[in-house]
């Protein structure tokens, strides 16, 4: 199992100008949406690949099976993605193709939770945790590479 | 509790008075009437007063409020510049709690809004000078969310509004309207603030607060400077304090 890699919050706490109810305001992500650390690993003697995100505040989690080879664990209240599990049994043998399929699977899992979350709120919001999760995983692609190599 | 005791004692005293000894006829009629219906009006008045007091009472025990004050003062000192720390009334931090129901606010003339439509109520504020505040804001998933604090709550993001016009007794109506629009409040609210000793702040920053993954409330930084110099620090410092804050708020 790999070690946690700390996330530097300053990378994701930039302020963007956005329009809100006709007024230009500066917006930044909620402090709770930035994970403290992230890790990816292939479970020993198993074909399951895990991507985990650790947040500062613990909360009750739920596990949902998206397809036969994909599971996602997220916060019941916040809907923040905490873990993505992917079965690599039917993945291509070529490293590049496997990596592409892996990234596609990760994005599918995040979008699945994001769509569920959007359905549960009555009005659209300026920010969500899903874009932060994607940004963090995009900037740490090497985590996937290390995990698929091992 | 003092109010309940005073009313209880007064009503009990009236019930014991001999109405024939009361000189004024109007007072005699009132005493006689109270003695006739006193068996149920006295306990009802005391119960109603106790309910009203509990509705308007700030949440949390004294210990919680002390703890909250310490965390808020620390966070404020971390964010604002050394020079600003010397003027705590001008550069503040307020903790607002979301409550679905508030009969006291909903029924007040100031808001006149359905009591169960959501409110952000001030729980604690930094410093010693302007700690007492009754600036509550409507906050719901409807479009009637008000203030920077309300928008930070509804949008679940940090919102920073700098360079607001100066609101002083000499400012014109255009400045009032601009201030109201940029801070998501009514012009009437700004006009009211204009009459106060402390002028309204020139910049605000709202940071959502969560407990167990649920929105709990908002931390609102406000400053008399047009720009908060340490704005970039705010989110980072709030991340640092989030664990401590969540641990404390979980027990409220």
Task: Give keywords.
heterodimer; A: 150 residues; alpha+beta; six-stranded antiparallel sheet; 3 helices; 8 strands; globular; B: 252 residues; Beta-Lactamase; 2 domains; 9 helices; elongated
Write up this protein.
The complex is a heterodimer of chains A (150) and B (252). Chain A has 150 residues and is α+β, with helices and mostly antiparallel strands. Chain A has 3 helices and 8 strands. In chain A, the strands form 2 sheets. Chain A has a 6-stranded antiparallel beta sheet. Chain A has a two-stranded antiparallel ribbon with strand order 2-3. In chain A, a hairpin with a 5-residue loop joins strand 4 (37-42) and strand 5 (48-54). Chain A starts with a strand and ends with a helix. Chain B has 252 residues and is an alpha+beta fold. Chain B has 2 domains: 2-55; 59-164 and 201-249, Beta-Lactamase (2-Layer Sandwich), CATH 3.30.450. Chain B has helices spanning 2-16, 25-56, 62-79, 82-85, 103-106, 147-155, 173-183, 187-194, 231-249; strands at 91-99, 119-125, 137-138, 158-161, 203-211, 214-223. In chain B, a hairpin with a 2-residue loop joins strand 5 (203-211) and strand 6. The chains are: A alpha+beta (150), B alpha+beta (252). The interface between A and B is medium-sized, with 33 and 31 residues. Strand 3 (23-28) of chain A pairs antiparallel with strand 4 (158-161) of chain B.
Oligomer: heterodimer
Largest interface: A-B, 33 and 31 residues
H-E string of chain B: HHHHEHEEHEHHEEH
Order of helices and strands of chain A: EEEEEEEEHHH
* CATH homologous superfamily grouping of the largest domain in chain B: GAF domain
Please report the distance between the alpha carbons of the first and last residues of chain B. Answer: 21 Å
Residue share in helices of chain A? 25-40%
Find the CATH topology of the largest domain in chain B.
Beta-Lactamase
Number of strands of chain B: 6
**Tally of helical runs of chain B:** 9
What number of structural domains do the residues of chain A give?
A: 1
- Structural class of chain B comes to alpha+beta
Shape call of chain B? elongated
Please tally the helical runs of chain A, counting DSSP H or I stretches of 4 or more residues. 3
């Amino acid at each position: 199992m790999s070690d946690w890699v700390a996330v530097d919050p300053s990378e994701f706490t930039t302020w963007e100008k956005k329009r809100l109810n006709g007024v230009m305001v500066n917006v930044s992500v909620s402090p709770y949406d930035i994970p403290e650390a992230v890790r990816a690993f292939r479970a020993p003697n198993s074909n399951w690949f895990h991507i985990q995100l650790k947040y500062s505040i613990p909360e009750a989690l739920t596990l949902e099976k998206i397809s036969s080879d994909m599971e996602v664990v997220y916060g019941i209240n916040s809907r923040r993605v905490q873990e993505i599990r992917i079965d690599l049994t039917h993945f291509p043998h070529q490293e590049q193709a496997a990596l592409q399929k892996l990234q596609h699977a990760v994005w599918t899992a995040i979008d699945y939770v994001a769509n569920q979350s959007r359905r549960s709120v009555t009005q659209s919001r300026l920010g969500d945790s899903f874009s932060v999760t994607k940004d963090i995983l995009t900037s740490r692609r090497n985590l996937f590479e290390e995990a698929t190599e091992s | 509790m003092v109010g309940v005791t005073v009313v209880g004692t007064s009503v009990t005293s009236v019930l014991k008075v001999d109405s024939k000894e009361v000189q004024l006829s109007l007072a005699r009629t009132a005493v006689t009437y109270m003695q006739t219906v006193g068996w149920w009006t006295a306990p009802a008045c005391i119960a109603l007063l106790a309910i009203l007091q509990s509705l308007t009472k700030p949440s949390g025990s004294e210990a919680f409020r002390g703890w909250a004050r310490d965390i808020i003062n620390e966070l404020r000192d971390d964010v604002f510049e050394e020079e600003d720390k010397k003027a705590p009334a001008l550069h503040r931090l307020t903790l607002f709690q979301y409550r679905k129901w508030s009969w006291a606010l909903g029924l007040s003339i100031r808001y006149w809004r359905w009591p169960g439509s959501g409110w952000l109520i001030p729980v604690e504020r930094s410093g010693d000078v302007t700690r007492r505040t009754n600036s509550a804001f409507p906050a719901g998933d409807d479009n009637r969310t008000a203030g920077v604090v309300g928008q930070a709550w509804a949008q679940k993001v940090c919102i920073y509004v700098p360079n607001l016009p100066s609101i002083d007794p000499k400012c014109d109506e255009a400045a009032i309207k601009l201030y109201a629009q940029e801070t998501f409040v009514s012009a009437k609210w700004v006009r009211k603030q204009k009459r106060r000793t402390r002028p309204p702040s020139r910049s605000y920053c709202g940071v959502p607060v969560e407990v167990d993954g649920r929105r709990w409330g908002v931390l609102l930084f406000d400053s008399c400077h047009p720009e908060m110099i340490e704005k970039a620090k705010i989110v980072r410092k709030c991340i640092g304090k989030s664990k401590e804050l969540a641990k404390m708020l979980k027990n409220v």
